[in-house]
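quick one, two chains, predict together pls
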Amino acid sequence: MSIASDTIMEKSGYRLHVVRTDKYKTNTLVLKMKAPLTKEKVTYRALVPYVLQSNTSKYPTTPELRSYLDELYGAGFYVDVAKKGEYQIVSFTIDIVNEKFLSDSTPLLEKAFGLLSEVIFHPKKNGEAFDPKTVTNEIRSLKQRLQSISDDKMRYSATRLVEEMCKTEPYALEASGNLEDLKTITPESLFTYYQKMLAEDEIDLYVIGDINESEVEALADKYVTLKARVPVRLPRNTDKEVEKEKEVIENSDVKQGKLNIGYRTHIAYGDPDYYALQLFNGIFGGFSHSKLFINVREKASLAYYAASRLESHKGLLMVMAGIENANYKQALEIIHAQMNEMKQGNFSEAELEQTKAVVRNQLLETIDVSRGLVEILYHNVISGQNISLDDWFAETERTTKEEIVAVGQKIQLDTIYFLTEAGVQE
Amino acid sequence: MEKIAFTQLKEELFHEKMDNGLEVYILPKAGFNKSFATFTTNYGSVDNHFKPLNETEFSKVPDGIAHFLEHKLFEKEDGDVFQQFSKQGASANAFTSFTRTAYLFSSTSDFNKNLTTLIDFVQDPYFSEKTVEKEKGIIGQEINMYDDNSDWRLYFGTIANMYHHHPVKIDIAGTVASIADITKDMLYECYNTFYHPSNMLLFVVGPVDVEGTMKLIRDNQADKGYSEQPEVERKFADEPHTVSKKKEILKMNVQTPKVMLGIKAIDVHQSGLQLLKRELSTNIYLEMLFGKSSPLHEELYGEGLIDQSFSYDYTQEQGFGFALIGGDSAKPEELTESLFSILQKSKTGFGLNEEGLQRTIKKKIGSFLRSLNSPEYIANQFTRYAFNDMNLFDVVSVLEQLTIEDIRKVAGDLIVDERMTVCQVLPK
């Protein structure tokens, strides 16, 4: 029996994914719209979902739309913009109670489809433009969100590392857009671009819950109609060689220095050695038994957090640690030493087994949450692969120490970024 | 073992009180991969003044010690417990709140082994001078991290404005200076006082065998020979009804200003259904005024006074309670004035009508059901409720009984000038 899988149906203009499970009290719809990350359109795509989320032609104000959601037993409705590899992905999620837990038996799943359709296909319009007042409000709100990124120093330093490291690549763009472009967007230009998204984006609709496949298909056919398209697929862009390592030190008024380090792995989701890379990251800095946690935090007592994570579709490995400003050199030395240990294969079979168990555990936990399950399944869409969760588990299980050491040979240090108080780092 | 069935919710909860006083709850969840267990003591950052076990005099301990103890409990003579959990494929964690310290793990295999590890490590303290000193560096960095976080500073700034004496105003982790005073003997004293099974609750949720799990816990506890221990005596200074400070401005390295309004609650020695009703009705009151379906929210948003970061919440525990309302704002002064004026007007029923109430109740019932998808939510909230003599599964029935008079009464009782304060974070 497979652990969790989606039944995929090709529809005109989109793919319908259905996952049947009775473990949730809600049913979840997630619509994902994907296109390449570009400098020209990044801010448009960041703004569109928030405008759509505000109102529709049937519910022309936010209170009217939100009151309707409340009436549907507080249906959750969220939008999100993210980047995966060099794609920018806009998501709309509706999470609605399964009526079998209510004394009232209104067919809520159909209502959810109706609402999604209303939001996507019937926005509040003014001729061939979005409602100007809504656009003004959302531009202001996005502007404030963009400004507040730098107020969260942990997030800011992670963003800055990527900017410095990927200067010449689309990946450097912030998925939430930028302030300059925001000045030039009008209700007309945004609406025109949205029509293009509807016509050209690669679109996937996930439906998860205690549901019936044929019923879901009928609802999808009734509520979601799109024109056929051939989505843009980007060439692989994970192989940039590092010419020279960069070190960027930026001064700011911070009590705690933020150290972020980026490596290129030249391996992406879907590659045969991706499973080994995931284990490499786990032993190096992914978990609380990892080399970074033990050596930077537990032994040297230098940090509260010292960890690493992967950008699976871009092939990057990122380290982050919060340290005393004066401990920069020492922390860096310890981190470099751990990377060397990894490359030389100085880790035990026991550490490897432990990491496999934790990776497996983490995956199983992620798919216990419907939105987590969608994220896992969506890896296949981004990478154009068809890897089942069972494959994922089996491949992880059979990965050997030699394969992990081989991954280490591909990893190159690219950029070190340190956000610190002026003049104190040693 | 007692079985409590929640027919409409299709859930069954099993309960047993062990001979040593430990409360155990098991909620089986078929279909899930993950099992989750929390082992929680009724001891948090506010419990800094108490009679230590076997002592007759009250004693006061350094700020941040409950949290420090939480960190140190993971370390044993032969290494740290994180390692053992991860060898067993589990991930472990812990947190300290104002009133609780919880230890937890989640795993998708070897559940019995992991559960035993959880219970045993919490019930087997090992503190040495050397490891206590080392931890000061790590926690020092945790404190610095929060010091750079403007949202955290705003949150504690607002609470500190409200309280004159109550230790809820003190940061949970303490300060770099206060933790410097902590010794291994103090940790043992706190441990022995608060970590007796009779002051603790164990909650298990997941695809588990109920009988087998209960037996494992019974056997584990029977072997340890705990003797009876009286309830811990804690002491809190009298707290005036008024706020300590009407306004505070923190200058930080931020681009967007932040505003938070705090409203201090009185009559905060409630428990059981009374507390549950207070909490739910106050949260509904805030939701009706400030939720996204309210015209007031639309107005504030349209005027550019708030953005998506705007939020509101009411919490109450033994001895303290407050409402917090705020978020990022380009116009902090205007937002402050608008919020005060909306709250004042609500005393006359403004924004609080029957239709809005029914809609909000429906919304709350839906979000409660949604949160039952999450084993973490169930375990954490159930424990919090149980320590306050409330039952998590009463939420829906209490919500259904709320009337518009209840909500108007909240407005009348809560909104009093001298119990309101504001904190702002402004760019340097």
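The mean pLDDT of chain A is 94.
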